[in-house]
Amino acid sequence: MVRTLVERAREGDQEAFGELARGAIDRLYRVAYRILRDPDLARDATQQALLEAWRGLSGLRDPDRWEAWTYRLLVRACYREGRREGQVGVVRLISIDGSVIDDPAEALADRDDLERAFRRLPTDQRAVVVLHHYLGIPLKEIAETLGIPAGTARSRLHNATRRLRAELDADALDPVSRKGHAV
Question: Most CB atoms within 10 A, among 48, 79, 156, 158?
């Protein structure tokens, strides 16, 4: 079905593209929000990505790669939005592992610490973390989606994980001065 819509849209069928966009907009927005941590920036990035998809549809060689291609366009739009806004935003994501929370206040504090650390990551590292951990996309496919070497995707994920640990450790050692300042 998607393949047929992509082929029709490539021939200029605006209704077919409208269907593709309606089918993609929610998933693209969720990813953009998780990368940018700001609803307005996420909407802008999503809109930019879909506009670029319409304009560049003739460049999509394989209609079956529509989803991966739109993720690539979206991540690039997120990079632009992140640079434009200085990567400032409120973080509201981190996956939940399903474990029972004994102390909601402590869980909230832990989540806030993790969000603060995540916000300090560069947008390119956030993108790989979100694509890998939130969407479950394998690193090889992330590399293809982003148009980067597989080693670069692995490196970004590794560096992001290492940096998150370092930020969390630093917050734990000096919670008052680090948490009291906005990043």
Answer: 156
- CATH code for residues 1-90: 1.10.1740.10
Q: Percentage helix, strand, coil, to 5, in the chain?
A: 75, 0, 25
Q: What is the mean pLDDT of residues 112-121?
A: 81
| Residue 59: other Cβ atoms inside 10 A | 10
Distance from C-alpha of 120 to C-alpha of 163, rounded to nearest angstrom: 9
* Dihedrals phi, psi of 100, to nearest 5 degrees: -75, 135
pLDDT in tens, 47-60: 999 999 999 998 88
**3-state DSSP assignment of residue 64:** helix
Task: Please tell me the distance from the alpha carbon of residue 55 to that of residue 64, in angstroms, as a whole number.
Answer: 18
User: Would you state the pLDDT for residue 105?
Assistant: 44
What DSSP state is assigned to residue 63? G
Which residue, among 144, 23, 3, has the nearest Cα to 66 in the 3D structure? Answer: 3
pLDDT higher than 70, residue 70: yes
CATH class of 97-183: mainly alpha
- Are the C-beta atoms of 42 and 36 separated by less than 8 Å? yes
Distance between CA atoms of residues 130 and 82, nearest Å: 15
Q: Range(s) for CATH 1.10.1740.10 in the chain?
A: 1-90
